[in-house]
């Protein structure tokens, strides 16, 4: 169960980082289209994309390998990094779900 807990912690960190970066990217999009300046998007976009790939690995490691979620739930968690605020909401759901599983396995 230590493997599951460490995978959960890494997932949680990545969910928050990707969620914040997605909000920054949304602000950059407002600057790009509202003020005709694409510099912020050019910087933040690739950073968010790279971090999102790490988030995908963390979610797949936790959900598919360690906690063995259903494919539907895993897909929802994977998509959460592309919808503003959803990664924060699902992080809470994932944490509760995994901790319940750990408690019942003990």
UniProtKB/TrEMBL annotation:
Membrane-spanning segments = 13-31, 43-65, 71-90
Top-level taxon in the UniProt lineage: Bacteria
Q: Please provide, in alphabetical order, the Gene Ontology terms of the cellular component aspect for this entry.
A: plasma membrane
Keywords carried by this UniProt record: Cell membrane, Membrane, Transmembrane, Transmembrane helix
The record places domain DUF3817 at 8-95
User: InterPro entries recorded for this chain?
Assistant: DUF3817_TM
**Membrane topology, as annotated:** Multi-pass membrane protein
Any idea where this protein resides? Cell membrane
Q: Does the keyword Transport apply?
A: no
Instruction: Extract the PANTHER family matched here.
Output: MEMBRANE PROTEIN, MEMBRANE PROTEIN-RELATED
Protein name, as recorded = Membrane protein
Q: Which organism is it from?
A: Microbispora bryophytorum
């Amino acid at each position: 169960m230590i493997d599951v807990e460490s995978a959960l912690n890494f997932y949680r960190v990545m969910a928050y980082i990707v969620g914040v970066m997605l909000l920054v990217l949304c602000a950059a999009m407002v600057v790009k289209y509202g003020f005709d300046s694409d510099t912020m998007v050019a910087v933040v976009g690739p950073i968010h994309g790279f971090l999102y790939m790490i988030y995908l690995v963390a979610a797949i490691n936790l959900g598919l390998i360690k906690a063995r979620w259903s494919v539907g739930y895993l897909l929802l968690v994977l998509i959460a990094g592309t919808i503003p605020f959803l990664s924060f909401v699902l992080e809470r759901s994932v944490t509760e779900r995994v901790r319940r599983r750990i408690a019942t396995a003990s």
